[in-house]
Write the structure tokens for this entry.
Amino acid sequence: MNQQKAEKKMSNSSRFQRGIKDLWKQRELQAMVWPGLIWMAVFSYVPLVFLYIAFTDYRISTPLFENNFVGLKHFAAFLSDDRFWRSVYNTLGMSALRITLGFCIPIFFALMLNEIKNAKFKRLVQTLSYMPHFISWAIFGGILLTWLSQSGIINQLMMTLGLQDKPILYNGDPKKFWWIAFLSDTLKEMGWSAIIYLAAISGIDPGLYEAAELDGAGRWSKMWNITIQCIRPTIALLFILAVSGCLTSNFDQIFFLSNSANMARSETIDLYIYNMGIVSGRFSFSTAVLFFRSIIAYGLLRLCNFTSVKLTGESII
Amino acid sequence: MKKLVSVLLAAIMIFSLAACAKGGGTETTSAAPAQTEAAKTENTEAAETTVSADAPAWEKDTSPIDMEWFVGASWYGYTWGDSLSTKHITEKTGVNINIVTPTGDVSEELNLMMISGTLPDLISLGSWETCYNTLYEQGYTYALNELADQYDPYFWKVVDGSVVAWHTKSDGNLYCVPNDAYGAEQMAETGMTAAVQTFLVRKDLYEDMGSPDMSTPEGFLNTLRTLKNEYATYKGVDITPFYAQGGSGYGLTSYLQNFLAVPYEEDGKIYDRISNPDYIEWLKTFRQAYQEGLIGIDYLVDSDDQVTEKSNNGAYFCMLREWSGMQEANAILASSENPDSYYIAIDGPANSNGDAPLIFPGSLDGWMSTFISKDCKDPARAIAFLTYMLSEEGQKDIFLGVEGETYEVVDGKPQLTDEMIELMNSDPNTFATQYGLVDTYWMLRNSVIVDQWRPASPYYITAMSDWADKNAFVNGGIYNNLEPTGDSDEAIAATRINQRWQEVVPELITAASDEEFDKILSDFLAARDSYGYEKVVSYEQNLLDARKALFQ
């Protein structure tokens, strides 16, 4: 008995030693992993504790757990606010555009880029198309507002082309806002989003194409039967992420493009949190909205993953 | 990628809130004993070091000290220490200031500073900011009366009694001192007010049109019709017919209501200014003008840069706009190739009785108020510095500069030298950055003192400001900032109502017909009630009654 125990003990400690040894062997890899893990713990897991704010009347001068517990008061407050539901509607509306059209455009763009045979030209187009990604929305939004103004380039262009007979205040019309947001986002991010697909495409075995060519496949056939089939996991992955993010919007973009005239269609959940919560210092309220949104987003993620597994066999979780 | 960034941002925000929750907590608990301790030592200290009310405390200690001063205006662009006036003050008092301004929303930034315990020593902000109340209610700032009694009783000699009475909170403490505080009596006596609300038109264009009357709805519409038909482009500029400052929340709300002499109270009861028939008629006039294509809603949409560009080119025909924001544009226009293209104030929209407007005159509230935060390293020096800045000597140093260099005394009256006045008018920017005089550092400006030294304004400024002074409703200061702020129930209701109203105004103006207009308005009034309008009114009523009691 005792001997057995001792053996077990030894094997335990030797396993521990082996573990340490393994860790040491992989030290370069570990060094790359740990900062990420720590970052995640600090910025993603620790804050979870503070979701408690949503259930209290939080005052910034009082320690977290000494604040009055009020239960679901703040949840009830925003759920009964018609403005909250309007912001949900706007967020979903803009996300619908983003998930349908906005999701296909970068794939299409990547496929087109891939077909360009002139390497120099291809690289030039790629660089130019992802450059706008590095401009902040504060600047890009400012430029855009000038373009969209009554004397701006877009009105001049449309009038020169005879598509409209007088200047239109594009950004003052709520009905146009979703499209402005969608098109400007596409303009800015298309090239950047295409990169991941280009990377996936470049990983496809050239042998597949050669074999297809021997079988007499044309360009379209190769694109459809090889390229798209090979990047399907990537597409599925990004699609699941896109759907789970459909309750978020690009805050910077909406913040700079919205104004009191188009607010009816420009206020997304993010902007609602900002307008109702942060500006007025209602921390509990905004935390509650944020919490609620996260729960729904998680549900969407599971749902989408489930569908994906059923349909294509691709799962990410 | 975007999602990741936004999640990250949200996480950072929550985390910083959280981290600060701890910091903030320990702060308040530790601050209390510190204060009582300070109070205890007060007596003994008072006996040893002579804290006297006869001499300001700053003179006794002029050793170098650095202080941070938060100025709650993202557009404020001047620094401390580069200009003549601030260099002079730093040499004299030993206090070197680092001015910090918010990059975005003032409350958002201050909230973060509060929870992270990194508030600057001095904080100046407007009372309309939502964190204004939080600053003193949750113990983030010193009571100035306690600091003054303890370290610098001379303070009481440099602040005006009515200002102190106005700003003393219900707990009996004075937490901040305002700039530009105007009392009603003083305005009536001197004729100088802080009134800035004007109706401006481009002079040459307006006179070419034969100076038409624009104070009635018909006159207003007819003038805009003439403008559209005959002056769509004028002297090479595409004319934008109309501008309203602050868009729907200000220019077309309280600003317009003031022009229409909509009362604030009726028989002692808070009056619902939005439901006033004259006001509704004028909003319908704007709707009509929009329908006919006489005006746009560009003023609700344009960015500040676009507005500045249009103003500096004289592209607006008429504006509901504070003249103070047009000083630079008018200087540019008056020296342009069309020297008559600057803006002048004329009688703007008026009510059906033709009553004189109730132009907001400035009030004891002042513009911005300055606090000393509990994070301040040396509150004794801070209150001494505040006392100095508020004193006549400090006001002179910051407004006029150095005697013999930037100002001289003529017939016992100090005035800026001619070169300074010349520079101020011709190159305001250089004047401000190099010399930093007159209105450059307005954070603690006492208009009662500095107005006597103020050089006469050039004609293109008085063309706007005289009208405002003449039409100021000098007893109107009492109605300023009645709205609840902060995170109380009333304040939340008020915020919701205001934000809703800002959206409703564009809907009203772009409505297809008067019937649709009426429907949108009645929908708003119903929504307003559901948001808790009653609570807001009763809050305002109580505040107004309390203010009246203060002055009886």
Observations:
- The mean pLDDT of chain A is 87.
- The longest strand of chain A covers residues 56-57.
- The two ends of chain A are 44 Å apart (CA to CA).
- Strands of chain A lie at 56-57, 68-69.
